[in-house]
Amino acid sequence: MAFRALSKANTPIFYIAPTQVQARAIIWEALKKRLYQVGDINESRLEMKVPTQDGGHSIITVSGWENRENFRGLKAGHIYFDEVDTMKDFFIGFQEVFRPALTDLGGGATFTGTPKKENPNLRRLEKLAQEDPDYQAFHFKTEDNPHIDKKEIEKARQELDHQTFRQEYEAEYIDNAGALFKYDALVDVFSNTVTKTGAKYLIVDIADDGSDKTIFSFWEDLEEYQREEYERLNTESIIGKIREYAAEHRVPYSHIAVDAIGVGAGVASSSMLDGIIGFKSSYAAIKTDLDIVKLPNVSYLNDPMAPKFSDYKNLRSQCLFTLADLINNHKLASRCEGKQKEVVIEELATYQDASKGDGKRMATPKEDVKLALGRSPDASDTWIMRMYYVIMERMSPLQSEEGSRIIQQQANQFAQNRAQQSLNSSK
User: Fold this and answer.
1) CA 215, CA 338: separation in Å to the nearest integer?
2) Long-range contacts of 209-217 (CB under 8 A, 24+ apart)
3) pLDDT tens, position by position, 110-128
4) Is the pTM of this model over 0.85?
5) SS3 track for 78-92
6) With 0-12 CB in 10 A as exposed, 13-18 as middle and 19+ as buried, what is 338?
7) pLDDT tens digits, 63-87
C-alpha cells in the first residue's frame, strides 16, 4: 500500500477489513510505524496523507466493511480487501460500491484472507480467475512464510483437529458437510444450459405485509429467464400484474404459483385468478411414489393400497431438497445477473440439512436463515416454490388412473387449505 501511494500523486488507496476494529488492529498501527515522520496522520479518520515521487500527495484510508456506504462516489487507485470470507454480502457491496470507484483511475483490487467454508468469497474469486485473464489467484500456506518458526506449525498440527489445521494453516477450503447446496454448482447455475420443451411458469413471491418487494420469476422449464421486482404493490395491483404477465408470456394459470401468506392469501384466492396455486411452505410434504427402497423408473401406483412415500418435515423442506438435487447435478439454470444473482447465491448457500433423526428430512427453517443473513431470504423463495411443479411431475405417471387420482386429490387438498384460510381470516 505504501509503495503504491508513494509512486504516483492523487492515487487514493483503500484498505478494508471486516470491521473498523480489525482494520485498526491489523494494519493501522503497523502503517503508522512504517511511515513514521513521512505521512501526515489523521487518527480519527484512520487516514494517512503521504508525499509522492512527483511532488504531489496521495491518501491511504483504512476502514471496516460495515462502513462501505461511506465509499460511494469516491475514486481509488487500488483497494485491499482483507479477510474477505468474513464479509457478508461481499459481492453485492463490491459491485455496487467499490468496483465503480476503480473505473476513473483504472485501478485494481487485491483480495486476501483465510478460507472459511460458511462464506467462500475467495473460492468464488479463484473460480473467476480461471475464466477471466484480468484476475490472478495465489495460494500460500503458513509454512511458506519464512518468518514463522516451523516448530510452531508442527505443534499446531498436533494440537488442532485435522480440518481446522487444513483451513487455518494450509489455506484449504473444507466443504461444509451439512450444506444442501454445493457452492461451485450454485455458482454454475448462472452459466448452465438446460434442455427446454417450452413449458412456461410464473412464480410470485409476495412480502408478508405487502410493504417489501414483490418478485415475479419467469421460467421456461427449469430455466429462470427473467425476474421483475416491484415495491409496495397492493393486492389489486399484484393481481393485475399476474394477469398481464400471464397473457404476455403465455403462461397457463395452472403454471402460476403465488406465496399464499399475508397479502398473498388474497391474491391466491382471487376469482380473477382461478386455477393458480396458492403455495404455503408449512403444508405437509407431497407424497409421491418415489421410495428410496424401490426400483427407479418403476411405477407402484397400480397398487391402490401401497402407501405413497414422503420423508420431509414440510413442503418447504421437500422443495429445498428437490432444488438442491437439481442444482448440484447442474440441471437448473438462471439468466439473472448482478445483485439478483449474488443475493440468490448467498441465500441458498446458507441452507443446511437440519434433520433431527425423526425420519423426516428438514432444511434450515427460514427464520434461522433470516438470522444468519440479517434479512429475509426472499430472493430465492421463487426457486423453492418452482419445485412444487417438479414434485408434482414426479407423482404423475399418467399411464395409470391411480396417478391421475392422486394428482386431483392433491389439488383438492390445496383448494381446501385456501378455503379454510379465507374463512378464518373473515372471522
Assistant:
1) 16
2) 209/262, 209/263, 210/234, 210/235, 210/262, 210/263, 212/376, 212/378, 213/378, 214/238, 214/241, 215/378, 215/379, 215/381, 215/382, 216/241, 216/242, 216/245, 217/382, 217/383, 217/386
3) 999 998 877 889 989 998 8
4) no
5) EEEEECHHHCCCHHH
6) exposed
7) 999 999 999 999 999 999 999 999 9
Which grid cell is 32?
503508522
The architecture of the domain spanning 187-426 is: 2-Layer Sandwich (3.30)
Q: What are the phi and psi torsion angles at 340 (to 5°)?
A: -60, -45
Q: Order of strands across the sheet with 277-279?
A: 277-279, 256-259, 200-205, 213-220, 223-231, 333-334
Q: Say how far apart CA 190 and CA 333 lie, in whole Å.
A: 6
| pLDDT tops 60 at residue 347 | yes
Cα→Cα distances 55→11, 22, 51, 60, Å: 13, 33, 7, 17
347's torsion region: left (phi>0), alpha (psi -120 to 50) or beta? alpha
List, by residue range, all CATH 3.30.420.240 domains of the chain.
187-426
Q: CA 90, CA 67: separation in Å to the nearest integer?
A: 13
Task: Report the alpha-carbon distance of residue 48 to residue 19 in Å, rounded.
Answer: 19
Instruction: Quote the CA–CA distance of 216 and 186 in Å, as a whole number.
Output: 21
Report how far residue 341's alpha carbon sits from residue 30's, in angstroms, rounded to the nearest whole number.
38
Alpha helices in 301-400 (DSSP H): 315-328, 338-348, 366-373, 381-394
Q: Which CATH class is domain 2-138?
A: alpha beta
C-alpha span between 243 and 292 (Å, rounded) = 40
